[in-house]
């Protein structure tokens, strides 16, 4: 089924927009940590003009719902809601961690991806994902915010080699102590080019929300260490 979906993301240092029109994707992306508010709407205008469409021609609007920078996540959802309200579009929120897993699939055909975003405060936003036959991703480790040393302490060996993605791997040497086998990738940030592919899966399943119901994911409310083995 054809789809016209606009995706945007400002949850991390990367600022990105992608427009999916059937099988064609129009993209803009730039690492610009302090200029998201200046760059995101011009990027939206550029991809719409390149495709010869307006917001009213679209089927849905997707956004990176986090986790990530508190300010960045709020900027992204605020702008996305404004655009969706104006064009009366349904919305689809996509995890930034899952988006990086999709980026590793796009670049490396990776089927198992371990994602770690530097969350500051000596913690990472963490999640591990396994690709399913329908192109979706199963959460092997639930998304959480956690100290890297605690994560390594409670990790276990398994049979897979995990592609790594995100800024957390370089920021925290403690992650080198994780017990499962890993291999690197150049995927440091989520990108709307990957959000839009995941959003299409949700759109085909009817998994959308009205603009007023769109919500972010911060994870700071999750006390991850209480949920690890032996710490219930």
Largest sheet: 5 strands, mixed
Question: How many separate structural domains?
Answer: 2
What share of residues are in beta strands?
A: 25-35%
* CA-atom Rg in angstroms: 17 Å
pLDDT averaged residue by residue: 94
**Number of separate helices:** 6
The tally of strands reads 10
The CATH topology of the largest domain: Nucleotidyltransferase, domain 5
Strand order of the largest sheet: 3-2-1-4-5
Order of helices and strands: EEEHEHEHEEEHEHEH
Separation of the first and last Cα atoms? 45 Å
Poorly predicted runs are 222-232
User: What's the name of the CATH homologous superfamily of the largest domain?
Assistant: ATPase, nucleotide binding domain
Family: Belongs to the KAE1 / TsaD family. TsaB subfamily.
Protein name: tRNA threonylcarbamoyladenosine biosynthesis protein TsaB
Organism: Vibrio hepatarius
Domain Gcp-like: 30-152
Keywords:
about 230 residues; alpha/beta; Nucleotidyltransferase, domain 5; 2 domains; five-stranded mixed beta sheet; 6 helices; 10 strands; about 30% strand; globular; Gcp-like_dom; ATPase_NBD
Present the secondary structure layout.
Layout lengths: L3 E6 L4 E8 L2 E8 L4 H16 L8 E7 L3 H18 L3 E5 H13 L3 E7 L5 E8 L5 E10 L1 H6 L7 E5 L2 H4 L9 E3 L8 H13 L28
Parallel strand pairs: 1-4, 4-5, 6-9, 9-10
Antiparallel strand pairs: 1-2, 2-3, 6-7, 7-8
Helix pairs in contact: 3-6
